[in-house]
Design a protein that fits this description.
Elements: E1 30-36, H1 43-53, H2 74-79, E2 86-92, E3 95-101, H3 109-118, E4 121-127, H4 134-146, E5 150-155, H5 164-175, E6 179-181, E7 183-188, E8 191-197, E9 202-205, E10 212-214, H6 221-238, H7 243-249, H8 256-268, E11 273-277, H9 284-294, E12 306-307, E13 326-335, E14 339-348, E15 350-351, E16 356-361, E17 372-377, E18 381-385, E19 388-391, E20 395-396, E21 400-404, E22 414-416, E23 423-424, E24 434-440, H10 443-459, E25 464-468, E26 473-478, H11 481-493, E27 499-502, E28 509-512, E29 516-524, E30 531-541, E31 548-552, H12 564-577, E32 588-597, H13 604-621, E33 624-638, H14 642-651, E34 655-661, E35 666-674, H15 681-688, E36 694-704, H16 707-715
Parallel strand pairs: 1-3, 1-4, 4-5, 5-11, 6-11, 31-32
Antiparallel strand pairs: 2-3, 7-8, 8-9, 9-10, 12-23, 13-14, 13-22, 14-21, 15-20, 16-17, 16-22, 18-19, 18-21, 24-26, 24-27, 25-26, 28-33, 29-30, 30-32, 33-35, 33-36, 34-35
Helix pairs in contact: 1-9, 6-8, 12-13
Length: 718
């Protein structure tokens, strides 16, 4: 950032020959920067420009050509968009920068959150031709809550529809106070010639392909004065020198070096957010200077909460290469040739090849990650550059490295000393709310499916696997349709397992719609030992949530005492199987009031069968109701979409319970909605709210299914 004022030196800071892994021995020589922005904003292209500017790669790749460093997965190449978190380290002026390129589509928010966890600062990428989407705004608010330092890069300033001034105004409106540009683009006939540094008041000309410095033209004087004044006032407001504002208002010139120092401090503590710009061949050097001089090193970024395995907080751990080892697996991938690869952020201590570490994973059992504590040996350490894995001698506190063949380590796990096992508090991860039922296409696929799904679950904490015993379906709970497509693609291409999607079955219930009496008669005498059991039952419905009651009113021993439990067992077995559509029966009271037995042919099994027959006969006498599960929904949306959301919920047979404001510009809508109506609500809400809406669901109760829907379900019952 200093060169933004002093001379903005035209130095590349190249790491050397492309392919050589950059190293860092000290945390203060490392910057971990995550690129955040909506899909298509230009994050991957920006990463390519920075890699080329530092000599890390010989030439910047193109997303359209499928040859970029960070979009190396075959799905990304095919779809021309990022779906994975990727790391691209580079070196500028002796500082190692770990660039974390994240997906910009909401379905892959798990990788995006992993990038935020591993980073110490965020570079928000906004397209000059498209502006800001809802997801980017939500992530800005998340970063604000944790005080993460941020800067904004407006990309595609050379696009034919680009409007730098309009997008800058949008950024200031949406992101709030403290957002101010450091440079202004100079555009002639749609071509970006260079940048004007507002603090240095110099024009950096890129017209010839290399940067040269000159005085800006007189036609820019008024614009420079206005924007420069806004920038200086913003910096002074963040200054720790309270006299600076008074001196400035009195007309005293403020030393540029003082302004730069205050700017760097404000950026590092996350209270001032400089805006830069990027186009073809323009802006890379300026962005590199912001990252190396304005963004904090790992030493300045607080560590996540650390506890022992019992949950007791552990104090005194800092970003120290000589401290106790505390590292976290931020991403797990399965390579068909190398095996499992764990991307690890080292928060304390030093990770070395061949050392033994303790691997702890807790708190994600609901998503298929059982709690585990094991010791594992570190194999080869590498410094990833996209898909390249370059050998690394060690990973010091603050750095990011990859570890091969940690067989038990999963995304979110903590690596620590064997004799001092520790646990890092898990980062926030949204619940997957789109259920997708699948089945293997063949017996061979079925044999491989379990292992392949286990690998996917280990890689992706936003995926939840459910084997529903009631519906006998295998269900993947995903973040959205695009997430589902990528998972099924990986099953097929990476693991060689072919599956097909099937219609999701919602687990319903059955109950009786009235009271009646019925007889179960199981009499079979074909010579020798036969079966003899007759029971008379009265069935009646119970209120919702009443469960099952069995009442014994046998008098005079007409049914021997040892066979009364047999009748109850038979009734329970038939209730589990259902009597209409194959769903379990609930909320029923069954009274055994009469029966007959035989001294020789009566048996436990005979009375079980009689109890089942009696329940079936009762179902033929009175209406049998199908019950559907009803969920309580809490939908958080921007105020602009509240009306649409409430109308949509009503159209889904939902009952809106009320609304309440949450923060500024958002409303929480609460409603009760049948599960049958919200199996695809994750997709529909995203479309309705332009990606800004979120929701939570929890089971509430069972209610009768409307007759027209009940008849359809009964007709299609197995």
């Amino acid at each position: 950032m200093r060169e933004a004022v002093v001379a903005e030196k035209n130095t590349g800071g190249a790491a050397g020959a492309a392919g050589r892994a950059p190293t860092a021995d000290r945390a203060d020589a490392i910057r971990n920067v995550v690129l955040v922005g909506h899909s298509g904003a230009g994050k991957t292209t920006l990463a390519e420009q920075l890699l080329a500017a530092t000599g890390t790669v010989q030439r910047a790749g193109r997303v359209e050509d499928g040859n970029t460093v960070s979009d190396f997965d075959e799905v990304e190449v095919r779809q021309q968009r990022s779906v994975n978190l990727a790391v691209a380290p580079l070196v500028h002026n002796g500082i190692k920068i770990n660039l974390l390129d994240t997906p910009g589509y909401a379905d892959f928010v798990g990788d995006l959150r992993a990038g935020l966890r591993a980073a110490d600062a965020a570079l928000f990428v906004v397209s000059a031709s498209e502006g800001i989407d809802g997801l980017t705004q939500m992530l800005w608010e998340e970063c604000s809550q944790v005080g993460m330092p941020r800067a904004v890069v407006i990309t595609k300033i050379d696009h034919q529809r680009a409007d730098f001034d309009e997008v800058l105004t949008t950024c200031q409106d949406v992101f709030g106070d403290g957002v101010a540009p450091l440079y202004l683009p100079v555009i002639t006939n749609g071509h970006v010639n260079g940048l004007i540094g507002l603090l240095s008041q110099k024009f950096y000309n890129y017209a010839t392909g290399t940067r040269t410095e000159k005085e800006p033209g007189a036609e820019y004087a008024a614009q420079i004065e206005e924007r420069r004044g806004e920038l200086i006032e913003g910096i002074i407001q963040e200054s720790e020198d309270e006299s600076l504002m008074e001196r400035y208002l009195e007309g005293e010139p403020i030393d540029t070096k003082v302004l730069v120092e205050d700017l760097e401090k404000a950026v590092a503590r996350g209270s001032f957010y400089p805006v830069l710009c990027s186009g073809l061949g323009v802006g890379a050097q300026e962005i590199l200077e912001i990252m190396t001089q304005g963004f904090p090193s790992p030493l300045e970024h607080p560590l996540p909460e650390i506890t022992d395995l019992s949950g007791k907080p552990v104090k005194g751990i800092a970003c120290d290469p000589d401290g106790p080892l505390v590292a976290e697996v931020v991403k797990t991938t399965s390579d068909p040739y190398v095996g499992r690869i764990s991307l690890v952020r080292v928060f304390s201590g030093t990770l070395r090849p061949d050392m033994t570490v303790h691997v702890s994973g807790h708190g994600l059992a609901d998503r298929g990650h059982e709690d585990h504590d094991v010791d594992e040996r570190i194999g080869t350490l590498t410094c990833p550059l996209g898909k390249q894995q370059r050998p690394a001698a060690k990973g010091v506190a603050g750095d990011i490295v990859a570890v091969a063949k940690l067989s038990r380590a999963e995304t979110g796990d903590t690596l620590s000393e064997v004799d001092q096992p520790l646990l890092m508090t898990a980062w926030a991860m949204p619940d997957p709310l789109l259920p997708v039922a699948i089945r293997a296409k063949s017996k061979a696929d079925e044999d491989k499916l379990s292992q392949a799904l286990a690998r996917l679950v280990a890689e992706d904490p936003t995926l939840r696997l459910e084997n529903n015993a009631e519906t006998r379906q295998l269900v993947l709970w995903c973040m959205g349709e695009a997430h589902t497509d990528v998972l099924l693609d990986r099953l097929s291409k990476r693991h060689g397992v072919e599956v097909e999607r099937v219609e999701l079955r919602v687990p319903l219930r059955e109950t009786f719609g009235g009271r009646c009496q019925a007889m179960g008669r199981n009499v079979k005498q074909t010579g020798g030992h036969g079966q003899y059991a007759i029971c008379h039952l009265e069935v009646e419905p119970l209120p919702s949530g009443g469960g099952f009651e069995f009442v014994d009113k046998i008098v005079g021993g007409v049914v021997p005492r040892q066979f009364i439990p047999s009748v109850e067992k038979g009734v329970r077995a038939q209730m589990e199987r259902g009597v209409v559509a194959g769903y379990p029966m609930v909320d029923v009271r069954v009274t055994l009031y009469d029966g007959k037995a035989h001294s020789v042919d009566s048996s436990d099994m005979a009375f079980q069968i009689a109890g089942q027959l009696a329940l079936k006969e009762a179902a033929a006498k009175v209406p049998t109701l199908l019950l559907e599960p009803v969920d309580e929904l809490s939908v958080l949306v921007a105020d602009d979409y509240v009306g649409s959301v409430m109308s949509d919920l009503s159209s889904r047979r939902g009952r809106v319970l009320g609304t309440e404001p949450v923060g500024t510009g958002r409303t929480l809508v609460k409603a009760e909605v049948p599960e049958l109506e919200i199996t695809r609500y994750a997709i529909d809400l995203r479309s309705m709210s332009h990606g800004t809406g979120t929701f939570q669901r929890s089971f509430l109760r069972y209610e009768p299914l409307p007759p027209n829907l009940a008849s359809k379900v009964a007709a299609t019952a197995d």
